[in-house]
Structure formats: C-alpha cells, structure tokens
Amino acid sequence: MPRYREEVKDYILNNVDIENVVSKYVTLKRVGANLKGLCPFHSEKTPSFYVSKNWQNFHCFGCSEGGDVISFIMKMENLDFISALEFIADSNGLDMSQFLDENARKVDSRLSKVYDINLCAAKYFRDNLKANSFAEEYLSDRGMSKEVISAFGLGYSLSSWDGLYKHLKVKGYSDDEILYSKLVRLSSNGTTIHDTFRNRIMIPIFDNRKRVVGFGARSLGNEMPKYINSSESDFFKKSKILYGQGISQNISRDKQCILVEGYMDVIKLNQFGFTNVFASMGTSLTEEQAHELSRKYKNLLFAYDMDDAGRKAIDRSLPLLEKHDIEIKVLELDKAKDPDEYINKFGIEVFKDCVDSAIDLYRYKIKRLKEGLDLKNASDRRVFIDKSIEYLKQLEDGVELSLYIQELSQETGIESSVIMTEYNKNKTASHRVQKNQKVLAESDKVAKVNTKTKLYLLEEKLFSICLSSKENFDFISESLSNGFKHQEFSLALLTLKEYYSSMENFSLNEAVDIMDLREVLFLDKYLRSENVEISNSEIQKLLIKREQEICLENIASLNSELNELLLYNDTESEVQARLKQSEIIKERHFFSTLLDAEKLI
Ligand SMILES: [Zn+2]
Question: Which listed CATH number (1.10.357.10, 3.40.1440.60, 3.40.30.10, 3.40.1360.10) goes with 251-357?
Fold first, then answer.
C-alpha cells in the first residue's frame, strides 16, 4: 500500500463536493439546508438519508450510518481508507501522487506502468480476437453474444512466441517494464523473451478501481491446462480479487449476488441480465472476498460446480461467510456441471426457475449431512439426527426452527416432539453461555453511565424532555434562567427555541428541513418517546434535583479551593470561602425541603 503524507486527506476533502460524489449512488433532493434521498446502506421506502453541503457530511436516521465523503466511499465501495482516497481522486481527476513519500513514489510509478501495459495488452488481445474469426467463433459457439464479449473485454493471444512482446516494444515499454508485468518471460538460458500466454482466449481481470490487474487464459480446444492465470504479484493478488468486479454492477444492499467458480459462468450470467455475479479466483472463497461480498450484499447464492470439489469448496467457504450478516442460498443444478453449461443446455428461463428455488443454507447443510448415511439404518439415523441438531442450534427464529424439525421428522420418521426434546437438551448448555454474555454487556453499560456526573444525567434528562413538546420546552427553558450548566445542552436549547417559534411539536423530519445536519444529529440522540406523557410536577422535581446537584458541585469545588488556601495560609480568602460555602449548604437544604414538599403533594 503506497504511503502518503498526511495532507492528502485534506487535499481530497477540499477538492471534492460530497453532493457530486453521493449523487452518483443516490438520487438527492434539496430540502432546506440539506439534501435527502433513499439510504444506500439499508432498504427503505421513505428517505431518511441526509447530506449536508455545509458540513460535507452525510447521515442516515434509519440505520445511523454517517460520516464524510471518504467514509461514504469506504462503505459504498468497500475500500480501506487509502483505497477510498485513491478511488475518489481517480473519479474526480485529482492527482494524489504529489503527496506520495519518496519510496512510495517509485513503487507507484512502477505499478501504474504495469496497469498501462496490462491495458495495452488487453486492447491488443481484443484486436487479435476480431482479426481471427476462429477465436471469435469459439466464443459464439459457447453462446457468448458480441455485446458481452466486448463488455468483458475478451481477447485472443496469438500462437506466436513473441507477438505481444513485440507489440509492447513498439509502444515504447522497456524490457524491464514488460518483464515486471509478467506478460512475458525470460527463456531458461536468459537470452530470449517470449509471451506468457499463447493461442488462448484472454480474459482481462479488473480490480475494484477498474484497472486491468491480470489475465485469465483459456485454451481453445481441450488442450490442458484448460485455464492458466497471471501469476501472483504485487498487483495481482488472487485472494483479494473477485472476477466480475469493476464491470458495471448495480449494487443495492437488498440485491443478491451470485458466486460462481468460473470466468465463463460470470460472463454468461451477465449476458442474461444477472449483473452481480462473481467468481472467487481459486476454488474456495478467501476471508477478504467474504468480507467484500457481505459488505455489499444481503444475499448470496452459491452457484458452484455440481461436483465433489464444488461442494467441498462451498463447505470451506461457509464458515467465512457465516461470520457476516449475509443470507446464503445454494443453487442445485441437475445434469450440468456449472451454470454456463446449464444455460447452454436448458436455456435461461429454466435456470431462472432454479435460482428461485435455491435451497437455504440449513437445508443444504442437512442434505450434506445425510450424504453417505442410510436412514433406514437405526444407527445412521441417530448420527444424522445428532449432527442436524448441532446445526439447528444456530437458528434464532422459532418458527423457522420448528419447520426444520418437522422436516427432519419427515425425513427420519422420528416424531418431531422427540427431536425437539433432543434439541432442547443440547441447547441448554449454549444458552447459559449466551446469558452470561448478556449480563456482562449490561454491566458494561452501567459502568459507562457511571462516568457521567449526576448533574449531567439530570440535564440530559431535562433536555430530552424539551424535545417532547413545546409546552414542556417552555416550562423548562423559563425555569432555567441561566440555561444548562453543560454548554452542549445550553446551545441546543437556543436552536430549539428557534424551532419552537414556528412549530408546536418536535419532529426529526421537520427539523432536518430547517436545521443544520449536525444540530439535528445532536437532537436525535435525546429523542425519547417515554417523555411525551411526563407531568409538570415530575419536571419540577427534576429541576429541583438539578439545583441540588449544582449546590453539591459548588460545595465540592469550594472544598478544594479551601484546601489550597490553607496551604498558602491565606486567612482572609479562607473566611470568604467558608462563608460562601455555608450559604450554598443552606441553599441546598432549601431545595431539599422543596423536594419534600413536592412529595407531600
Ligand atoms: Zn440507512
């Protein structure tokens, strides 16, 4: 990862406008001081996603996502901080290289040369494809349309030894640069340079930033190996790439993505309108890829090959995905080894039906558990039930659980009540752990609250009551001649005053149309429905308790002042302070009697 000097962040923030960036993903409408639209991070029908041009910030009141333009792109494109900066720079014509440190500058110029060379090679392969009808025919025989061939930039590498090498030389690249790209190799005796890929269909592989980072290459006939890929390098890291990235996608969090094994599956499915299709670059998913997919999609459909290797690859990928909030289904295709072949054989409509009837993860797992077992055999049945229950323990939805138990019962002929009893036996132990964790979490919360002073909590409570109605607001703000002790509440009180001058009730939707987004965010934290019914005498009590707390805090601060005065032997000031303190103690006493009187009423 290149290193930049710190100023790069400000450079980006000062040179892009959040409205321009966000509006590429969200249709924004102006409302008062802000812009609003449908949140791209959660699904909603009425907009609660706001952008403030003044603050160059966004916030969603539905799911609480928020931040500046950099965090928007990090979330939207699932990029780390630096990559998000680079992404924004790329798409806004900004040049970050001026902020690179010296070493990074060298690496960067080397890498950008590689991307140039790769792009140049991709164009060369594409032109070869057009000039060699047999290669084009190979693809059309496999059912690829002209449009999809061009959208994915497919090409052909000639069977010549150095066609690409010579082409790149003509384009002005040095041997050193071309060798670094790994598109060519030095012969074993070190005298000649020859092309890495020959007589193959060339499939350019893009990264998130739409740069060509490498190639997949398929033989035209049955020549083995069928596929070869660019080798691992600084710019081609298979574990991080999903094939299908960087090609037009229409992502929304609701959408399903389809995970396939092969390049051809990705391309074929795109041709038929499935735009969110990816191939992991090995047979099973990596941690990075799982993270990437779960950040962008809510549902994932496995459409891996229907052989043993494919199933094992799914089994290996599942633990990585289950850590994330993503719903998983598995596609089962009969009489074809992969989606590409299936569509060629049976057509897209039949394939779509299969997608609709894909089985969910638990059914898939239970099916897998059944493999190799003979359920007519009592001991096999026992093994099957035990293993299945082990899986079902992860289910949280009671309805879903009982459906699965019924299904298990049908499958095994064992009554569902018996299975349920087994399940409960199994469940108790893990339940206890969960309960303990809950208790821990609760005590954590309590500890956090305790760090706030009593006075703060009282003011917080009073302030949140101000949001419940104009009447309560008037009552409280009139009682507080000097505002709140804590400045944040005092300032917000002024904002509220202006708001209530034209409105009777506080609502976030109204507020966001007239207030600054930051102010609304602050108010949002204190909106509590429980305050709507609060009585005046209850508010009165809180106000008195607040006065008492102020007294206590004043007494405490005078005490420490007194200690200091004793140290310096300043008798005159000491007398003054003691007098003041006794005044406050009296005052506090007065508030106590008031509270007692309130109690009597
Ligand atoms: Zn949201």
Answer: 3.40.1360.10
